[in-house]
Amino acid sequence: MVPTIIPPLYPRAYQANALVRAPLKLTHVEARIFALALGCIHQDQTELPGISIPLSRVMTQKKGGSVYETIRDACKSLMSKVVSIESQTGNKKRFTAYSIISYIDLNEGTGYLTGNFAPEIKPFLLQLAEQYTHVEIETLLTLKSAHAHRLYWLLKSWDDVGIWEVGFDALRKQVLGDDNDVTYTLFYDFKRYVLEPALRELYSLGWVVTYEPIKDGKKVKSVRFTIPKPLAQIKPNDIFEPTHVNKGKKSSKIGEEQMSLPLQVELPTLQQRIVTRLQKLKMTVAQIQHVLNFMGDDEAKIARLMKVSHPLLRDFEAGNKVFDNLGGVTINLLKTEFPGLYPILK
Predict the structure, then answer these.
(1) Global pTM value
(2) Where does residue 143 fall: left (phi above 0), alpha (psi -120 to 50 degrees), or beta otherwise?
(3) Which CATH code is given to the segment(s) 1-127?
């Protein structure tokens, strides 16, 4: 009997940005299956390969119920997923719907999930030359929620730009699917149950993405994300890991600029935004801690801080202005904007 040759799983997953940014609702198990399926593709291939995934990679732990039934239900759901891509040329609109998977076979006997991608999806997955996003599959598999999977892909597709402003309704659809008009329709609920829990998972990867709600009157109309450079491109002095705290130990220093704040692992993401922004603006640990104490959880104050400090950070990072003491300039700005802050910060 000739042994079955199992194709390798490649370390990176690729998708065209048009596919990444299309509305798509996945459960956590569906997201893992999709990630592993993408790992069957190598960009040097000329045709989409078959999908072959060890079941042990889909679910690593049994959390009650039948693992087989859970994966089976996820497979059935994936078979029904349709991605809608809309475009416009001039005043002419175009709508195209694509299936993702055309065939799935789940076999407990072999221990593998096999199948095929729908052939029409090929241009969005294979031999991508531009406008695409790639991620490390093992990084995806560390994420514990479907929302974190979706947000990770979306943010990665904009990380070369560094800023992504998206309408709130569009963001909801991209993360929750375009057939969901009833869940988390208020930004407060979306932020509490979807956005911030997902961002906390990204923080656990050391990727501190921040966001700012943009309001039209009292209603949030859009969200502006500030996306840092990929970790591989960050200089040692820029590193800040908000979810890793070594209590009772001094942090190793790589130059005097490196910062380590005694922040809790479960610190609210609003405060994490302050830390990240003020760290980039070269404020000291003591100065940042003082601002944190002053701001507390006041969303209005935090939004104001992020808004007024953004032009300063933009000018610094773009090299539009030369600052002899960026931290001092930042302090003076905050003292002007927030009279209740210490008259003098040292």
Answers:
(1) 0.66
(2) beta
(3) 1.10.10.10
